[in-house]
């Protein structure tokens, strides 16, 4: 049985209620385009009645050619004792120029009497009148029953009357919201089943993740007969977020046999998740189901050898189906078959002799014993493999650096770094300030090298982590620095280890630049740059 | 109906399979103590047969007095054609000295024939023989059926035979594992129900989160009759992690009426989650259900005013039940009673005026907004409270420090710190080398102050952690430094925040010494030390 489940994305509206999430109009347009490509059916763009930024989005999006998605505006029912046709909020929906509108209304009796401070009858009038008005204006109309599950538990008869008022007024969809996110799958299943006995209009589900079971709530609702899911990309949203569509879609499509998007579109899932995270400037957890960086990463030795023989042994789906990939973690727990698999994955073609491979594994183990951790720093691993097989050009090397920090009771701390770096036959000697010692060093290195390798200017650091390895040594202990860098949307991580946090940072920073130069295919420094230009830049 | 559900924590074993997770023996002991306090029934400490670190944990933990939890060792059944009593792996379990052991075995026919490369009959022998052997040695024995749900779907008759072999051999618990994390709640419910028709032994569930529904899978299993849950704190673990016990416990206890821990223990939930994250040096997502920093944070204007009138309007449970808090404008009364409770806990006796208390709460909030985190640094909180009420003597103050680091290609990096510190009316000016900038600064400070406050020589630093607060800024971002110090067996933690790791470290180091001096009751510097002795020491 294949049945269509419609996807309604509210990343651009409910998603932006999440703490720390803020999207410009330009960001929203970019995300809408990607959602359209992915096959989302409804894209909720904002609440035109609530702020000018949302109104600007609806103006801009009209000129953007979308292939499939229906842009939808969000709003509420009319206010008590105001006719729908006279309500500013509803008029703003019409003026936004959309073809579909979603309005929420109360379905929990307590909220009607205590929050809206009106009668249960007046609320039914508001729901019916608002839906009728939008329909009369030719809009596809979705009615969102706020707090429906809590309302149904408190007063199921009234909650049903609210839905019936929307249905009788001609709503195209009725959507049941678990606004507080407190419901559990079995309740959702039973209530959706009960509702469907008394309604003809297609039903949607809009859950929040406060109990950590929002994805399961969607599956329960769909198994009970709901045919629309409202959620956000990566589950962003107020408090614990809305349901994560990134987890919902592969579960529905690959496991339960429902149809949401095409197989080709499903292969964009991982990229979509990371793209939205990038634009919203949020860090994705590595262990995010389906699309996380670790979602198909295997560490334990038994797991690794089994997965290499037959992926089904330790993978619930094929990562390629959703555009993710298998990763074998090279670590103390694993051996030679890992190395071969790893090199293929990293795109390094080294035909190693058995003895060479053994030698490399020995080096990896020694370095891991010293505290290096390559599973979180695959760019450093790549460099090590290339170096071990003599395939890495030495494009720059350190002569020396100095860092001076000064702090007095009355002044903020200052950090200055000077570096001397060999490039070709020259020695570049320059200096830079920074927010701290590592930042100063990073600034000085870039300043020295950008002249020779302009691609460095496109790269930036996206994460910096320090981990103390041996606690008993405390500030004299060994530390591991992990640095994540990005360039043109691609990310890589490097590692450095030392008892000195600055030396460890230097290693990781240098690896980060060396990896970029290898990726970009830089074979030698640009000696063509006029000395004067160089001097000019270095002294800026 | 209240029914006990047993909690089995595998943070220290399966959790450490997670990418980037690495725990020292000391870390594991600390976490075990907290798990015990929280009321966890079984604490799986490691796999004694697999590596020396795990064996060291079992040796150490024997000397630690636990109130409630049973320390459990993990392993596998004996190998094909080897008697259980002769198997090294099983012998290592016995030698670890635990009273409970959990062994996994195959229950998916494909894994028996293709991975173990033995017969289905021999696998049944291995399961039965291994369980019998552990029971004969007096151990509480848990049998973990690996890949049970996939195995049951492929060949339910054989999967059941495996369980029956374990039951007949006397297993105390049988635990069904969703090893690949691909199962959905309805399948879990149906299969657990079916299994329970044919077994008498109590049943546990061990799910992974690859489909994003592990918490719901636990609820389904428990609703079908399982009475033990195996998971990890914060859901750490291989790939997408194990099920998150932090979400499981409040759902079972507050929503479904099962009993796991006491109400008082449940109030430690948020702290437990954050404590383990700190030790594992992992960043918790703000939107983590129940315990996240945003889990009860209200952003939308409508929500905030409604929540202030009646929390039930937009909160599914009361945050206090799990030790989290609402983040709206907290009423000053609630804030003050918290403060009073906290001061009692810290052993500070300050009879504060209403206005003073308000002022202190304001300061704490401002500093938390800047990135200070007092939950992990109660010594700094104590100092702040003492200072705010004028009860802290100023025993030393910074005039200035300088740090110089030099590194050349041919030499190891050197770090030198000079400090000028005011003590009484004098200015001490001295210098020291160190393994790194923070260590050099630490050494210089001690050298300057030990002459006046000899107790400083007894104190040493036991942990030093750096956390980047705003990941997007990378090396220019704000960092939080947490320092743990110890003296005569007592430990305390302090915090510093700055965009400069050295400045943040200075703050935490200075707090660490100030706290010691307060604890030791130092009222003033020892001016009795002869000037000459001082000079001698300062120049050593």
Automatic annotation (TrEMBL), chains A, B:
Pathway stated in the Swiss-Prot or TrEMBL entry: Amino-acid biosynthesis; L-isoleucine biosynthesis; 2-oxobutanoate from pyruvate: step 1/3
Catalyzed reactions per annotation: pyruvate + acetyl-CoA + H2O = (3R)-citramalate + CoA + H(+)
PROSITE patterns found in the cross-reference section: AIPM_HOMOCIT_SYNTH_1 (PS00815), AIPM_HOMOCIT_SYNTH_2 (PS00816), PYR_CT (PS50991)
Whether Repressor counts among this entry's keywords is: no
Reply yes or no: does the keyword Phosphoprotein apply. Answer: no
Q: Which residues form the Pyruvate carboxyltransferase domain?
A: 5-267
Q: Which domain of life is it from?
A: Bacteria
Picking any one GO molecular function of the record gives: 2-isopropylmalate synthase activity
What CDD domains does this protein map onto? DRE_TIM_LeuA3
Q: Where is the signal peptide?
A: none
Q: What EC number(s) is this enzyme filed under? A: 2.3.3.21
Which GO terms are recorded in the biological process aspect for this UniProt protein?
Answer: isoleucine biosynthetic process; L-leucine biosynthetic process
A Pfam family this chain is assigned to: HMGL-like
Q: Which InterPro entries match?
A: 2-isopropylmalate_synth_dimer (IPR013709), AIPM/Hcit_synth_CS (IPR002034), Aldolase_TIM (IPR013785), Citramal_synthase (IPR005675), LeuA/HCS_post-cat (IPR054691), LeuA_allosteric_dom_sf (IPR036230), PYR_CT (IPR000891)
Q: Which UniProt keywords apply?
A: Amino-acid biosynthesis, Branched-chain amino acid biosynthesis, Isoleucine biosynthesis, Transferase
Q: Which family does it belong to?
A: Belongs to the alpha-IPM synthase/homocitrate synthase family.
Task: List, alphabetically, the NCBIfam families matched.
Answer: citramal_synth (TIGR00977)
Q: What is the designated name of this protein?
A: Citramalate synthase
From which source organism is this entry?
Brevibacillus panacihumi W25
């Amino acid at each position: 049985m294949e049945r269509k489940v419609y996807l309604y994305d509210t990343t651009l509206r409910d998603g932006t209620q999440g703490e720390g999430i803020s999207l410009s109009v330009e960001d929203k347009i970019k995300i809408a385009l990607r959602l359209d490509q992915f096959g989302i059916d409804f894209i909720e763009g904002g609440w035109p009645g609530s702020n000018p930024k949302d109104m600007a989005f609806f103006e801009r999006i009209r000129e953007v050619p979308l292939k499939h998605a229906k842009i939808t505006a969000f709003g509420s029912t009319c206010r008590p004792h105001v006719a729908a046709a006279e309500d500013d909020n509803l008029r703003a929906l019409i003026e936004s120029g959309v073809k579909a509108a979603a309005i929420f209304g109360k379905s929990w009796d307590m909220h009607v009497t205590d929050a809206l401070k009106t009668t249960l009858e007046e609320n039914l009038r508001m729901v019916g009148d608002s839906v009728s008005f939008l329909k009369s204006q030719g809009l596809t109309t979705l009615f969102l029953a706020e707090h429906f599950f809590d309302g149904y538990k408190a007063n199921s008869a009234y909650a049903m009357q609210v839905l019936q008022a929307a249905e009788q007024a001609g709503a195209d969809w009725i959507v049941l919201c678990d606004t507080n996110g407190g419901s559990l799958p079995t309740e959702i299943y039973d209530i959706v089943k009960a509702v469907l006995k008394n309604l003809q209009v297609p039903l949607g589900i809009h859950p929040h993740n406060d109990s950590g079971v929002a994805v399961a709530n969607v599956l329960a609702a769909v198994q009970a007969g709901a045919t629309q899911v409202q959620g956000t990309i990566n589950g962003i949203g107020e408090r614990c977020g809305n349901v994560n569509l990134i987890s919902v879609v592969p579960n529905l499509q690959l496991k339960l046999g429902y149809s949401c998007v095409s197989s080709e579109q499903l292969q964009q899932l991982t990229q979509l998740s990371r793209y939205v995270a990038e634009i919203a400037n949020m860090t994705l957890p590595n262990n995010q189901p389906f699309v996380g960086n670790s979602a198909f990463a295997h560490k334990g030795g038994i797991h690794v050898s089994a997965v290499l023989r037959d992926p089904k042994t330790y993978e619930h789906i094929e990562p390629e189906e959703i555009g993710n990939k298998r990763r074998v973690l090279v670590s103390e727990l694993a051996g030679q078959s890992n190395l071969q698999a790893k090199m293929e994955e990293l795109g390094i073609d080294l035909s190693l002799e058995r003895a060479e491979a053994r030698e490399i594994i020995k080096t990896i183990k020694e370095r891991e014993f010293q505290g290096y951790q390559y599973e979180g720093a695959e760019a450093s691993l790549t460099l090590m493999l290339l170096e071990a097989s003599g395939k890495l050009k030495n494009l720059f090397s350190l002569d020396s650096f100095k860092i001076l920090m000064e702090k007095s009771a009355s002044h903020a701390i200052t950090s200055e770094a000077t570096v001397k770096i060999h490039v070709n036959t020259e020695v570049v000697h320059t200096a830079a300030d920074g927010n701290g010692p590592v930042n100063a060093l990073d600034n000085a290195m870039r300043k020295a090298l950008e002249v020779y390798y302009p691609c460095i200017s496109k790269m930036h650091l996206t994460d910096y982590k320090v981990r103390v390895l041996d606690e008993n040594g405390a500030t004299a202990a060994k530390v591991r620095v992990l640095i994540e860098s990005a360039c043109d949307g691609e990310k890589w991580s490097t590692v450095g280890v030392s008892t000195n946090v600055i030396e460890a940072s230097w290693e990781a920073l240098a690896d980060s630049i060396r990896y970029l130069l290898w990726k970009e295919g830089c074979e030698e420094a640009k000696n063509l740059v006029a000395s004067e230009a160089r001097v000019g830049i270095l002294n800026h």
